[in-house]
């Protein structure tokens, strides 16, 4: 009798414990200290569980989920702000101010650091890891499979030709071979100039070199027309205009602006960037781009 | 004959009247000594004549026309100014410096003409600096530099030369030489107004003396008359010893008034 | 009495003016072509000649005509401006240390340009950029002339320059920090250290007409500056209207330097080093120095602009850094010479 009762109690306890544990394991006050972890947190967690996101989250230039981020408590990466909100999970990037993250760890908080998304592979890993931490693995898989479907559609409709594309941002800053942007360009059917020039990491590309390399597509950094700077003035250099207008070698050249919030961070939304580029690819092919 | 006519000239610095209702005229053909104690207004008077000193009342006429209405260039070709102190900001050669005197006669962008070179050479010969032609001004002695600057003024071939204490830093030999040069200018028809402190030089070489004291004219006429004992006492506050050598006067200030 | 003469050299044989001018011009032409050939993409002299003749070689032509050519032209025009303005200011102020950078004219020109650029005025009206530079330069020259001018001591002039420079630098940094554009704060390096990289023909068109007017105003001042050698009163007696001379030098300097700095930032020391080196070769005459100093300034700036492309392996050095590396030791040398002369 006692043995049955003990057994029953154990079974009951286990039965009750299981859902309670999985609910209790889900963090209820999530603090994000990096704009890219902001994206994943907003995409995966319920709004009520988000304690704070960075001040860049509501900014449409830097954050895809800027609308969703409106109204959420904002932090500027200071330990004090974060502590005041009593988080039970802190997520940040490996490059977020080390002093801050170290301090938070020392004070006994759970801090999870994410490497920057420098490839599609890494991006998927980060999404899944975040999902695990937040207890939203199911949702993540859904988002990823939606994204993969869109990417597959692009790849299938892909053209044979592979024109060369280059990123050209303020001051001539460009991305390297080891970057998410590189993978996105490849998916959309382009060759990445930086990869061809053996530029592994991001860096500055002299205007002359860029022109001499003769890219078919120049992807310009986002330009704020109301806030002039010499860095941006470079993007309007007459030489670039001449290059884009040139039909040398029977090729046509074009430019495009991809909103930086679509691919500065990894997330399911990169599919939109891929689709934009794929459409541009089609236009270029029709206009007669020779590889 | 060219003439400066000064009518009721007033110059005020702050609340101090430097020149008070001055009426005087200067003609070419005459060596006029402008004398007077320190602070009498001699330099100021010269500067008003060349248009460097603004004045508060009165008129200055050159050949009957107000200098303010004269063509600057015309005036510059006829009137030369030799300031105190002998300023030269850049280490030019003597020849180049003297050649600056030809600027009023040179239209812009014109190279030196034969006439210019001749005038420069003559000026350097008269002041005995021809041998120094390629020397740099800054390497010259004080006396040599003064003669070079005088040559610059002469190179203009002016009809009127205004010189402010040109012999102050010269040794006796060169003092006499300089005064002789000025005398030669008079013989050639020019006029000279020279500020002097040396009363003997003033008495010996000048045809006429104008004595300034406290911004007013205290004497104007023959040296003998102007350098009277009363005038010396009233303006310079000195007593002097006088004498004559070969008919030429010498005056040596001897005693301060009220002194031993 | 002369102002303390700096660097009394014994070998003071002036070279024939025509020979000097021709030699400098030939060197400029040579360096101009070298400048066209210098850059991260190798371009041969043949390609340069072909492009200049009008042959279209597609992308190479774009690089040559749109990137290298404006850069070389600006090096010549900006350099000529700095050399000429330096010589003119030194002639007017009778002071061998007067130089647009040192006395704050360039710094204020940068401030004027920065205000025009970062407030978006240039987006509305392109000429606002050089006009802003000119306005700044005008205020600076007038201020310096008021503070120190007229046969001032070297000390007074330098102190006035330090004051104006400090003020202009602080306001420029402030203006840049207030700009909402995140890149603006770093662009202080462009404005205060100068650069000709990635300039376009647009910059040439914006700056050249105003610079040219400034050049004409300054180059016609030769005789007046010669006369000023003997002091202001003598210059007046030689027939020069001093008020007009001062105004013309001030306005000419402001126009030329203002327009130059608007497109190149502050490039210092050229106006100090070049007149000083060339003065003995023209017999120390301020008037003859003017065109020679312009040529010398163009030559020095061209040379420095070529050097910045090769000195470092990574990104280009800012032009002003190189001219400062040459000019600052030179300035120290002048200071030492002055101390010796004043003892």
Walk me through the topology:
The complex is a heterotrimer of chains A (291), B (260) and C (343).
Chain A: H1 2-25, E1 30-32, H2 35-44, E2 50-54, H3 66-69, E3 74-75, H4 79-84, E4 89-93, H5 98-106, E5 111-114, H6 120-134, H7 137-156, E6 164-168, E7 173-174, H8 180-187, E8 191-192, H9 193-196, E9 203-204, H10 207-212, E10 217-220, H11 230-233, H12 238-245, E11 254-257, H13 270-287
Parallel strand pairs in A: 1-2, 1-4, 2-3, 4-5, 6-8, 6-10, 10-11
Antiparallel strand pairs in A: 7-9
Chain B: E1 3-13, E2 16-27, E3 31-35, H1 42-49, E4 59-62, E5 65-66, H2 72-78, E6 79-82, H3 94-99, H4 114-126, H5 142-155, E7 160-164, H6 172-187, E8 191-195, H7 199-205, E9 208-213, E10 216-221, H8 223-226, H9 229-236, E11 238-245, E12 248-256
Parallel strand pairs in B: 3-8, 3-9, 6-7, 7-8
Antiparallel strand pairs in B: 1-2, 1-4, 4-5, 9-10, 11-12
Helix pairs in contact in B: 4-5
Chain C: H1 17-37, H2 45-53, H3 59-93, H4 105-118, H5 121-124, H6 128-147, H7 154-178, H8 188-193, H9 201-219, H10 222-228, H11 232-237, H12 242-264, H13 270-278, H14 286-307, H15 319-342
Helix pairs in contact in C: 1-3, 1-14, 2-3, 3-9, 3-12, 3-13, 3-14, 4-6, 4-7, 4-12, 6-7, 6-12, 9-12, 10-14, 13-14
Fold and architecture overview:
By secondary structure, chain A is an alpha/beta fold. Chain A is 47% helix and 13% strand. Chain A has 13 helices and 11 strands. In chain A, helix 6 packs antiparallel against helix 7 (137-156) and helix 7 (137-156) packs parallel to helix 13 (270-287). Mean pLDDT of chain A is 87; it is low at 18-22. Chain B has one domain (3-256): Rossmann fold (3-Layer(aba) Sandwich). In chain B, helix 4 packs antiparallel against helix 5. The longest helix of chain B has 16 residues, at 172-187. The mean pLDDT of chain B is 92. With 343 residues, chain C is mainly alpha-helical. Chain C has a single domain (71-342), classed as Orthogonal Bundle (ABC transporter involved in vitamin B12 uptake, BtuC), CATH 1.10.3470. Chain C has 15 helices and no strands. Chains in contact: A-C, B-C.
């Amino acid at each position: 009798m006692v043995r049955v009762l003990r057994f029953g109690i154990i079974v009951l306890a286990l039965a009750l414990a299981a859902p309670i544990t999985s609910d209790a394991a889900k963090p209820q006050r999530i603090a994000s200290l990096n704009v890219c972890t902001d994206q994943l947190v907003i995409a995966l967690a319920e709004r009520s569980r988000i304690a704070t996101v960075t001040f860049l989250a509501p900014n449409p230039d830097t954050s895809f989920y800027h609308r969703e981020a409106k109204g959420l408590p904002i932090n500027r990466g200071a330990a004090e702000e974060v502590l005041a909100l009593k988080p039970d999970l802190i997520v940040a990037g490996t490059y977020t101010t080390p002093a801050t993250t170290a301090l938070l760890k020392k004070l006994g908080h759970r801090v999870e650091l994410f490497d920057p998304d420098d490839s599609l592979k890494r991006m998927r890993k980060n999404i899944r890891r975040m999902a695990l931490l937040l207890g939203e693995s199911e949702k993540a898989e859904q988002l990823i499979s939606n994204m993969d479907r869109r990417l597959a559609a692009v790849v299938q409709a892909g053209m044979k030709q592979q024109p060369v594309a280059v990123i050209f941002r303020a001051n001539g800053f460009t991305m390297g071979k080891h970057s998410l942007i590189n993978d996105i360009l490849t998916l959309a059917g382009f060759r990445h100039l930086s990869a061809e020039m053996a530029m592994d990491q991001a860096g500055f590309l002299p205007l002359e070199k860029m022109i001499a390399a003769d890219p078919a597509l120049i992807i310009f950094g986002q330009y704020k027309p109301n806030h002039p700077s010499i860095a941006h003035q470079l993007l309007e250099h007459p030489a670039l205009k001449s290059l884009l207008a040139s039909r040398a070698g029977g090729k046509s050249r074009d430019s495009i602006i991809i909103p930086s919030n679509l691919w500065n961070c990894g997330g399911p939304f990169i599919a939109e960037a891929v689709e934009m580029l794929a459409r541009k690819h089609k236009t270029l092919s029709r206009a007669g781009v020779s590889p | 004959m060219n003439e400066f006519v000064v009518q009721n000239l007033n110059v005020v610095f702050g609340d101090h009247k430097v020149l008070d209702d001055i009426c005087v005229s200067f003609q070419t053909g005459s060596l006029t000594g402008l004398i007077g104690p320190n602070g009498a207004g001699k330099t100021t008077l010269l500067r008003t004549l060349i248009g460097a000193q603004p004045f508060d009342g009165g008129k200055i006429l050159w050949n009957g026309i107000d200098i303010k209405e004269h063509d600057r260039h015309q005036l510059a070709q006829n009137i030369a100014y030799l300031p105190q102190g002998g300023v030269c900001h850049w280490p030019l050669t003597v020849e180049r410096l003297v050649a600056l005197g030809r600027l009023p006669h040179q239209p812009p962008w014109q190279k030196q003409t034969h006439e210019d070179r001749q005038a420069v050479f003559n000026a350097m010969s008269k002041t005995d600096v021809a041998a120094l032609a390629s020397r740099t001004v800054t390497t010259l002695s004080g006396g040599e530099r003064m003669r070079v600057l005088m040559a610059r003024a002469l190179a203009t071939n002016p009809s009127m030369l205004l010189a402010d204490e040109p012999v102050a830093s010269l040794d006796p030999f060169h003092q006499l030489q300089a005064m002789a040069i000025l005398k030669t200018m008079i013989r050639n028809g020019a006029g000279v107004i020279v500020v002097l402190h040396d009363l003997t030089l003033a008495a010996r070489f000048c045809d006429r003396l104008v004595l300034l004291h406290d911004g007013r004219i205290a004497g104007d006429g023959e040296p003998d008359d102007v350098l009277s004992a009363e005038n010396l006492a009233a303006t310079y506050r000195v007593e002097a010893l006088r004498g004559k050598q070969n008919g030429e006067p010498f005056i040596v200030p001897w005693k301060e008034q009220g002194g031993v | 009495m002369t102002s303390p003469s700096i660097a009394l050299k014994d070998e003071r044989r002036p070279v024939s003016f025509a020979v000097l001018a021709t030699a400098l011009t030939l060197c400029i032409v040579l360096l101009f072509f070298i400048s066209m050939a210098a850059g991260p993409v190798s371009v041969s002299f043949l390609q340069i000649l072909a492009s200049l003749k009008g042959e279209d070689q597609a992308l190479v032509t774009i690089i040559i005509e749109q990137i290298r050519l404006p850069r070389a032209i600006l090096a010549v025009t900006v350099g000529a401006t700095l050399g000429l303005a330096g010589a003119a200011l030194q002639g007017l102020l009778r002071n061998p240390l007067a130089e647009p950078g040192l006395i704050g004219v360039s710094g204020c020109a940068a401030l004027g340009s920065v205000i025009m650029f970062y407030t978006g005025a240039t987006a509305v009206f392109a000429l606002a950029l050089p006009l802003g530079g000119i306005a700044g330069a005008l205020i600076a020259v007038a201020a310096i002339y008021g503070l120190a001018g007229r046969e001032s001591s070297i000390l007074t002039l330098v102190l006035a320059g330090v004051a104006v420079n400090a003020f202009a630098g602080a306001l420029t940094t402030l203006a840049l920090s207030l700009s909402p554009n995140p890149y603006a704060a770093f662009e202080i390096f462009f404005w205060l250290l100068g650069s000709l990289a990635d300039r376009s023909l647009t910059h040439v068109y914006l700056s050249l007409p105003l610079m040219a007017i400034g050049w004409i105003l300054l180059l016609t001042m030769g005789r007046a500056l010669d006369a000023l050698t003997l002091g202001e009163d003598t210059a007046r007696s030689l027939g020069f209207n001093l008020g007009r001379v001062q105004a013309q030098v001030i306005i000419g300097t402001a126009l030329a330097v203002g327009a130059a700095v608007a497109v190149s930032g502050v490039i210092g020391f050229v106006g100090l080093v070049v007149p000083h080196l060339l003065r003995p070769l023209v017999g120390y005459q301020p008037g003859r120095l003017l065109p020679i100093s312009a040529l010398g300034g163009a030559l020095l700036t061209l040379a420095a602009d070529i050097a910045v492309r090769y000195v470092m392996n990574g990104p280009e050095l800012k032009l002003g850094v190189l001219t400062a590396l040459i000019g600052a030791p030179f300035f120290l040398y002048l200071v030492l010479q002055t101390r010796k002369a004043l003892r």
